[in-house]
Every structure is written in C-alpha cells, then in structure tokens.
C-alpha cells in the first residue's frame, strides 16, 4: 500500500472521531421536541459503544498475529474476550448498575463504606489502565510504521495527541456515539476485506492452511526487514541480500533494518528469535505450542480473560449509561452477540496469514498480519482500498480504547489522587488526562516490544486477581469487610502486577517459574479470593454498617416497590 | 562477595537506629515541648476526640464520648445520663452501680452540682473503688439535658469538683451544638417541604386558566394538558426520596414547560439538549424545577417578543454539566450574588435553596454558578457528580 493512502486512512479516522465527538452531540440531540428525557441510550447503542471501546489493538491486530505465530491455542483469546461478558452478564451487570457506582472505586466505597477501600481500588484502576494503554501505543507505533514507514515513536505520539485533543476539547461529550461508530467501523474494516481474502483463497483452490512440516516459502519471496532482528536459520539456504548472494548457515543471524532478502521457493522460513517454529500439525493442534507448561498456561489465560473483563475500568463506566439493571443485562447480552460476530474474523486473518504472509515469522512482526494481508492478496485499487480500510479500523481500535481508558484513568486520577492538590476540577481532569497518557507513552517508547495481545492478557490477569474478587464477593457475600477487600486487592493485584512487571522488563523466564510469572491469573486470583475471605472473616467488626440496605439495593429489581431504605423527610413529623 | 553485603546490612541497621533515636529525641524535646506542654496537648487531644461523639447527641454518642471524658478526669468510673432512658457507664463496677446512676443524678438533674458520699454510692464489695461521686448538670439553652457523674474511691477534693463542673460545661456546649445541627437539618427539610408546597400557587392558577381556555376550542388538547398537570403535581408532591434521576427531573420539567407553553403560546420557545449518558445521574429532588421556573419568568418578563430558553445537560467524565439559559432581561450581578448567599428578597424562588442543597449534598465546590448582566440574559449552571456515597435516586 502506498504511504499516502495509509496516511489518508489514519487522518480520516482521526478527524471523523474528533468531529463526531464534538458535533455528534448537536446532530443527535439539538431538538426542541419533548420527551428527550425518555430517550435513554438503548441497550443496542450502548452495546455497540461497549464493543467499540472494548475492541482494542489486541483484538484487532494482536489476536490474528498470535494465531499466525502460535496456532489454535491462541483462539482462547477471542473466546475469553467474549466469554468475560458472560461472567459480567450472569454475576455482575445488573447489581453493579443498581449500586449507582460510576467507577470501580465508587463501587468499593458504596459497598464497603470505606475511604481506604476506595483508595486501593483507585490505585489499581490506574495500574490496569496504564498496563492496558501500553500495548495500544505500541500497536499504534507498529501500524504507523507498517503502513507509512514512520518511525516507531510516531504512532504513540499521534494517538496520544488525538486522544488528548478529543478528551480535552470536549470530544467525549457524545462518547456513546463515537464509540458505537468505532465498533461498526472496526467490524466493517475486518469483515469486508476478509470476504475478498476468502474469495482469493477459494480461487487458489483452497490450499491447506497448515501444511505439514515447518513453514517454507511457497514461492520465491523478497522480504524487507524494517527493524533489526535476530533470526534462527534452520538449514543452509542461499539468499540474495541487497542484490548480492549470501549463504545463511544454520544458527542465529542478526539482520539489520533496511536489508532486503530474496528467498528461493521452497526455502524453510527462518523464524525471529522470539518465535518458536511450529510444524503445520502442531500449529493446528492445541497444547502443542512452545512454552513449558501449555496446559497450565491455557487454563491461566482462560481464568484471566473470563474474570478479567469485569475489572476493566473503561468497560464498567459504560454500564452507568443504562437506565436500570434490566437494561444493563440486555446491553451485556447484545455485547456478547456483537463481540461473537467480530471475533470470528481475527482468527481467519491469522490462518490466512500463515499461508500468504509467512515472512512475518521472519521479521517477528506477526501483529501486522491484518494490515499486510489485503494488500498482498489483492492487487490494484481494490487492494489499496481494502488496506486503507483495515488501517482505518486499526486506528479506530487505538483511538477508541485509549480515549475510553484515558477518560477513566483521568477521572480516577483527578478525583481520588489529585483531589485536594488541584482546586479547579477542570484543571484536575486535564492534568489527570495528561498523566494518564504520559506514563504509558513513556513505557511504550522505552520498554521492549511484546506481543500486543500478551500485554493485554497481563492487564486482564491483574484485573482478574483484584477487581474480580472485589466485585464477586462485594455483590454476593454479605460478610466482606473493607480490611478484607483492601488486603485482597493488595495481595492479588500486587502479586499479579509484580509477575507482569517481571515478565515485561525481564523477558520470558523458563520452567515453572516462567509459566507462573507469564500467566499469573490461575494462582493470583484464588489467592486474592482466599485473602479477601480470610481477612474479612477475621475482621467482622468492620462490616459496613449499611450492608443490608446496600444488598437490598443491589439485588432487587427496580420495578419492585419496596423500602430501599431511603430517607423520608416526612417521617419526622409522622412519629 | 559476602563482606560487602554484611557491611551494607550493618550500615542500614545503624543508620535506621540512629534515625529512630534522633527523631524520638527531637520530637520529645524540641517539637513537643516540656512535660507540662505535653500534658496540655494530651488533654486538648482527648477533648477533641470527645467532641465529635458528643456532636452526634447524647443518645447517639454518649457511650463513645464517656471514655474520653473519663480519661480527662482520670477517675475510676464515670457515667453519663440524660435522666431518662440513656445511661452509659465507663470504668469499673458497671454491673453493680449502673442501676443507681439515675438516683445519683437526681439532684444534678435539678441543676445543682451534687457531691455524694459512701452511704449513697458504695456497694457491698469492699474492694470496689466506687465510693464517692460528683454529679454535675448538663444544660442546653437553660434546660437540663442530663448529668455527668464522676465516681472516686476517696472523698473528692474541691479541685475535682471544679474539674467535673468544667467538663460538664464543655459537654453542655457540645450538646448545644448538636442541638443546633439538628435544628439546621430540620430547617433544611422544612425548606424542601416548603419548596414542594410552593410549586407556586401562581403556576397552578395560570396553568388551570390556560387549560380552561382550551376546553371548548380544543377539548382533546385540554385533556392532554390536564393529564400533564396531574402527572406534574404527582411528581412535585411525591413524598419519598431525597434524590431522583436527572431523567425524572427533566421529564417533570418538560411537563411544566408544556403547561407554560399552553399559556404563553409562541412567546416561549425552548431548546432541550440532553446527552442520554447523563440521564441516570442522581440529583437532589426538585433541584432544576425552580431554576427553570425562574428562567421562564424572567426570560419573558417585560418583553413582547418571544423569549428563548435553552436547557443543556452534558456528559463530562465523572460529572454531568447542566445549564439553564434564558435570553431575558438579566439582572445585576450583585443581586445574583445576594440570591446565592441567601440575603436577597424572596424574588427568585428557591435559587438560594437549590444552591444550599447542592452544596450540602455534593460539597462546596458544587454550588450554582450564575452568569448574568443587565440585558444579557441569565445562565445558571451546575455540576453534578455521577456518584457520591449515599446519593441514590429512588
């Protein structure tokens, strides 16, 4: 794809996002006709908005990249991302909405009636938000580099600027419409190209996706290496490097950025150091991927994704928009449907990518498969247009998720951590937004590049080990006390954060330690539950005084007419 | 390899020890002052611990406050009673003596300080230190509210009697403040009641008049208006709940504006721009109604051409921004200021009341903001946080 087309796609997405954010509110709502108030956000709109905010770079790019590199095991990512909403639907959605809480710290305070619990929850929200923003920025860098050749730092900076402008310029006023638009844009951006890709594949006589043996270049292929990479060459191969022949002996080789390698047809593909070569059989079979304890890793991933969704700060704020608990449930159901449709697609890209863009295994940039595939398979204007579409979709993914996260993190920062230091709430929010972006950008520019979906998986692990116990026990167990909740949040959140930080900074470790650190959720989540329950039982005197009233409010459908314990001013005169 | 580790550990331990010793030394001498000073500070601190408990009133806070009060006098036991049902005891001998507290307090409850000897106080256990008692009255507004009784083993000195009286005076002061708090809360409630009752007679009269004018010409419209009116009054006079959702409040305002439009016809035009995201926000009951009423009144006042009112509710992160804007005559900014501080004449119904309620519920930074000048219209805006503990729409 030409650089211009890529830039046009990025600019169009950014401008559309900002414009809808700023003026959508007028177009949608300038009205003098009455009963505006009854026009609440319908579950359908709300679900689209949640989908738009939720489908991040990890879903749009990362899943396909992981499937390309590691095969069927990675299909747990899309399954888990979706199934998380099943947990939300069954256990959390309606009671959370009825609690009246807007953010997770709000919920902690409402349920436990404690400022300490609120503070602990705030810190965790910020941690998870930063951890989740980091891969978005890294993905933005990757995308901009892939489609326009811009330097690695350009993507994060561009996304951060657009987010900052739209957040500070009041662009989040019609956030529901912006995010809903982004969902449909993302769905279109994956759905339309994949139809053409499948047509091409059918036209090719439906070649087998996972040919037996290790992947080879089916035909003579020219690979341009854009970033320095170390590759592992499996067997002797003669290539043409920058025009001159070169013999690659088996073993590892460093390739500099800018090198162009021409491989002959049938040559086995050297894999980037970070990837393990997989034969077609092991790619297509579960639990055969590299890693020391694939079964543990898979279960841990499932736990993280199934239970982490409910703890994501930017997802829960959207539930507030529902008028009542029933609408919250209907919204969640619609989200399940929308996500289910979307998540069929990345897997297809990954599988087709194994067939048509295997050189990504050499460069190690498997996350780019969605961006590269349409241009590779379809020539001419059509290919160009489809590439623009996926680029626009990818950019929508960064923008929607990072703006949603930025608003959430900025809100928590300004309300809970900067409050009292900054008097003016508007200044406080701006400062919060700035801080919310600054830290992950710094991390994105300095930390090594990990798989996008991997880092997001880690954010899910932290959420599952901290907020999941808080929400589940808070909603379903009367005897949860604030010391118990704080202890659980600190132990679960702390343990998983440490594991995450070690993995991000120290790189993957080997053996059981490595497996436990790379996929911490399976032990940190039960640990958090245990600590929360044990400490709560030991500190029953700290049970929230209004717990019964809160429980009634959380669990009674709104249409039931009963005393929810509200203060009746007339009582004083009646008695 | 091991040697440096040992050195580092020793150094760390030494430095932290030195730091701890130094801080103790500095704090005890220089920062906290002499022993006398420290005693004073301790007493002040104990007093400050007791006052919030007492501010909750004798029946709610006595059992927690009495601990701190006993610490002040350092007696073996102390009791607080309101002379009625409430009796709290702190210190030794609770089970043996607590039934007699009311008898010991009898004279104090008449307003006198009373010193009681062993015949009246002591029990049959020889080792019980509760033998003498000093009872002092607690008064609020010249009315006896209860008694404080300090029990000692030896005959109380004149100094102790004086101290008991001083403590009783302190408690009386706090109880008076508690009374004051209660009065203020009652007043606020009464104001809401008044506000509800106040859905102004003018409006009711005018609305019924306007409806009457349609009865013959357009009976269907008249019927609709009457139903609106019925719904409007039902909402305004509802008897439960401090808070409501913004959606409910706006619905009521729409009804109100329908009725006003029936009366003013084309003279009144309204723009409502509401972000659906903020409709579930909980707001104090009837907090917008008075503002819209004012906007209608002053937006149309003294002019023949149509007046326009704009009501906007926007989503802004953790808060909702609501503004009510009219293009009417406006007013003197000083007048607006006095309305908010509550000194103004009762011209603009309820603005001060709304402001006060918003501040009371959400905190001082959430008051009303009025932007106005002569001839420039008036814009009243407010911010409402999406969540605040204890604030639930019902």
Describe the structure.
The complex is a heterodimer of chains A (575) and B (394). In chain A, helix 4 (76-99) crosses helix 21 (547-555) and helix 10 (294-308) crosses helix 20. Chain A has helices at 3-29, 43-54, 57-70, 76-99, 104-112, 115-148, 154-168, 175-203, 280-284, 294-308, 313-319, 325-356, 360-363, 369-377, 380-417, 425-446, 452-476, 482-506, 511-518, 521-538, 547-555, 571-574; strands spanning 221-224, 229-233, 237-241, 244-248, 251-255, 260-263, 271-272. In chain A, the strands form two sheets. A four-stranded antiparallel beta sheet of chain A has the order 1-6-3-4, with no helix packed on it. A three-stranded antiparallel beta sheet of chain A has the order 5-2-7. Chain A starts with a helix and ends with a helix. Chain A folds into two domains: 3-29 and 41-205 and 281-553, Sodium/glucose cotransporter (Up-down Bundle); 221-268, no CATH class. In chain A, strand 3 (237-241) and strand 4 form a beta hairpin. By secondary structure, chain A is mainly alpha-helical. Helices cover 67% and strands 5% of the residues of chain A. Chain B has 394 residues and is of the alpha+beta class. In chain B, 53% of the residues lie in helices and 19% in strands. Chain B has 13 helices and twelve strands. Chain B has helices at residues 2-31, 35-55, 58-73, 94-97, 101-105, 118-121, 158-198, 201-217, 219-236, 246-264, 289-300, 333-341, 351-362, and strands at 77-81, 87-91, 114-116, 132-140, 143-152, 243-245, 268-274, 282-284, 307-316, 319-326, 369-372, 378-385. Chain B has a five-stranded antiparallel beta sheet. Chain B is elongated, with a radius of gyration of 32 Å. The mean pLDDT of chain B is 82. At the A-B interface, helix 1, helix 5 and helix 15 of A face helix 7, helix 10, strand 7 and strand 9 of B.
